[in-house]
């Protein structure tokens, strides 16, 4: 008797496994760029399109001299609000796409790892679209380090010195940088300069590449203007993006189905999630999103984002440069 997808996948078991494996497989999570916690899981599970996150602004004003004649002047603390958009995505596969994996010793693990790797890639695509939108916002210019117009060619390509200048955009928070997201051509250029190091992973784990002591994540989705020779590399501090894995009431994250007439099995997975750049508020323009939740193209529109934290608290820098 043929093994069916429904024979090896129990949705209540499969979905938590895929969520966990997705985070284990994501270099963005492993580098500390994306941080998941229960509070964002709760926000992502809300029956709403966005999640409001009020916060207190820092205290301001100079201290005052004490004397016995003049009372202190009370200051005040003010509140502001960050806001994240809740994303709703899904993907279905037919048995033919997964059939080869049903012969393994543990078919649920084989299928689960494929699905988890798929969603890890999609998280990275969502993050890159969001970064395009965030740095398209006028309020984020303070977090951009663009050296492409430097008078000397020696000053407009990425190297150790120019990277230090880019990191300085975060001021005294620069020491917290944990990861760098770059185009493969940028990584190749740095490798030619002998600036890419390889850190050997623990037994059974994959070795990771580093630049200036920070984990390197390579993705050709990073912005590039081939005609001008300009590349964008992103520098991140810890928890720059918050991840929430939602499970709203009535939501069905995983299910299996079968077309008996066609003899085909189906695996359907759905995600309700938050992937939010902390401190940059989702402020969509009229008519956005066109559907229930925004597309990657809508996330990539700068008009839909507004910075609400001070610049160095954003923990992200866009470094625009050329290659040597």
Describe this entry's structure for a reader:
The chain has 324 residues and is of the alpha+beta class. It has one domain. It contains nine helices and 17 strands. The protein has helices at 5-8, 11-25, 27-30, 38-44, 95-98, 107-134, 160-167, 184-192, 296-299, and strands at 34-36, 50-56, 79-85, 87-94, 144-146, 179-182, 196-199, 208-211, 214-218, 224-225, 230-236, 241-246, 254-259, 264-277, 280-282, 305-307, 316-321. Strands 5, 6, 7, 8, 9, 10, 11 and 17 form an eight-stranded mixed sheet that branches. Strands 1, 4, 12, 13 and 14 form a five-stranded mixed sheet that branches. Helix 2 (11-25) crosses helix 6 (107-134). The longest helix is centred in the middle third of the chain and has 28 residues, at 107-134. It is globular. The relative contact order is 0.23. The mean pLDDT is 90.
């Amino acid at each position: 008797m043929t093994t069916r997808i429904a024979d090896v996948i129990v949705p209540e078991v499969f979905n938590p496994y895929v969520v966990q494996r997705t985070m284990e497989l994501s270099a963005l999570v492993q580098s500390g760029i994306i941080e998941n916690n229960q509070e964002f899981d709760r926000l992502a599970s809300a029956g709403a399109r966005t999640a409001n996150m009020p916060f207190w602004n820092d205290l301001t004003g100079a201290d005052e001299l004490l004397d016995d004649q003049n009372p202190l002047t009370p200051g005040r603390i003010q509140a502001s609000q960050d806001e994240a958009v809740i994303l709703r995505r899904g993907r279905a596969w037919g048995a033919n796409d997964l059939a080869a994996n049903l012969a393994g010793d543990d078919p649920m693990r084989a299928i689960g790892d494929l699905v988890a790797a798929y969603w890890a890639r999609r998280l990275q695509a969502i993050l890159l679209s969001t970064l395009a939108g965030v740095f398209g916002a006028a309020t984020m210019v303070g977090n951009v380090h663009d050296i492409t117009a430097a008078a000397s060619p020696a000053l407009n390509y990425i190297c150790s010195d120019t990277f230090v200048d880019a990191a300085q955009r975060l001021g005294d928070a620069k020491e917290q940088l944990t990861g760098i997201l770059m185009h493969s051509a940028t990584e190749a250029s740095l490798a030619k300069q002998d600036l890419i190091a390889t850190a050997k992973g623990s037994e059974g784990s994959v070795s990771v590449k580093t630049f200036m002591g920070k984990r390197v994540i390579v993705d050709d989705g990073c912005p590039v203007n081939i005609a001008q020779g300009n590349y964008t590399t992103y520098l991140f501090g810890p928890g720059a993006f918050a991840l929430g894995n939602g499970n709203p009431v009535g939501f069905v994250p995983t299910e299996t189905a079968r077309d008996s007439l066609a003899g085909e099995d189906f695996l359907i997975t759905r995600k309700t999630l938050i992937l939010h750049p902390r401190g940059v508020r989702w402020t969509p323009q009229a008519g956005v999103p066109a559907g229930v939740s925004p597309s990657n193209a809508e996330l990539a529109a700068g008009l839909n984002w507004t910075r609400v934290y001070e610049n160095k608290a954003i923990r992200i820098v866009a470094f625009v440069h050329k290659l040597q």
